[in-house]
Amino acid sequence: MRDQIEKKHAFLILAHKNMHQVGVMLSALDHPRCDFFVLIDQKCEEDFTGLKKYIKNGNLFFTKRISASWGGDTLIRAELILIEAATSKDHYEYYHFLSGQDFPLKPIDEILSFYDQHAGEEFISIDDNPKLITNRVKYYYPFQNKFNRNNLMGKVMRRMGIILQKIVRINRIDGKIQYGIGSQWFDITDAFARYVLSQKVFIKKYFKDGFCVDEIFLQTVYLNSGDRFKRYTANRCEKHPYIQDTYFDVCRAIDWTRGYPYIYTIEDVPMLMESGCLFARKFDFVRDPELLKALKDRIMVF
Disulfide: which of 97, 146, 176, 264 matches 268 by Cβ 3.0-4.6 Å? Predict the structure, then answer.
């Protein structure tokens, strides 16, 4: 049995702006048991080398940079780069995927203790929505990596592409594959992280040039892995007014009811703390600096 201090965790962070905000998140998670692997989006022009000053107890590694676009398969590529970078360094107990606009809702000691209690469980949310899965996987979206979410030309080309592919009867769905959909954010064990990397050919075959497939590929890999992995599912008796159930399965407070997703304000702090989640997104501390102070005071990390 490894000593407790040796049960290290890898935090995989994809960030594209607000390096100071990324830094305070790193500082909140800093711990001798934690290493950090950060992929700075190639579109980011900020100086990110200063992130090193926020880490006192763990280790910080920068991965190679790519441009990751909303809805494109480059997001899958970014996740695989992060997983590969971390697994090449050590055999971590867990690999936690976060964005640069996340923040913990509990002290890091409590977070690590929670995962110690659930050792061996995979934190992957999986919903049953065949129609939504089909629309994203059935057709090719070769230009999705070139446009952001609100780009009008991107929306037009996506719709025209679907019309043309319907005419020639394109269908990438494989009836032998069990597909799943859920949150792109995850916390996975070393065994599953390495299994995901072993499935690169499978991932490329079924998800290259897909649409928003970063919310499908990991779920699908898990569902087609047999019974070798065990998934954590949260026990909830009632619906939350803002946070969807699927995000409780990955212990994250994410609100798609009030936004895309909703950006929290200081008025949301009590609700976030009562949610029982370990992390939350989305935050903008540049816009709301008092929110950062409120969160820091609640989790007592500074």
Answer: 264
